[in-house]
Write a structure and sequence with these properties.
Order of helices and strands: EHEEHH
Shape: globular
CATH class: Alpha Beta
Radius of gyration: 14 Å
Structural class: alpha+beta
Number of helices: 3
Largest sheet: 3 strands, mixed
Number of strands: 3
CATH architecture: 3-Layer(aba) Sandwich
Strand order of the largest sheet: 1-3-2
Mean pLDDT: 90
Helix content: 40-55%
Distance between the termini: 27 Å
Strand content: 25-35%
């Protein structure tokens, strides 16, 4: 297995409508979700590109209020969740 000094991800911000469209296109359902990840795992300019993390800001706002978190902390939580998905780690944490 090749080791990389640097790795990267893209983070994409969407709303409910856009997330529904992505879920319909790539997951065959039209549910609103908070985060989805798309694995790429390609080398670009000597850097491993893991993929894209798509965060639904509308859902993040609702969840932040429900969980009594700041929007910033909820976005961080969702980003970690998406990164764990790209690294093929469990949903249980």
């Amino acid at each position: 297995m090749k080791k990389f000094e640097k790795a990267g991800v893209n983070i994409v911000w969407v709303n409910d409508t856009q997330m529904k469209g992505l879920n319909q296109r790539f997951r065959s359902n039209s549910a609103v979700s908070n985060v989805i990840s798309f694995s790429i795992n390609e080398t670009m300019d000597g850097r491993l590109h893991l993929g894209e993390i798509v965060i639904n800001l509308d859902e993040a706002r609702r969840e932040a209020a429900k969980l009594h978190l700041s929007l910033r902390n909820e976005i961080l939580r969702l980003g970690v969740h998406g990164l764990r998905n790209l690294l093929n780690e469990s949903h249980c944490f």
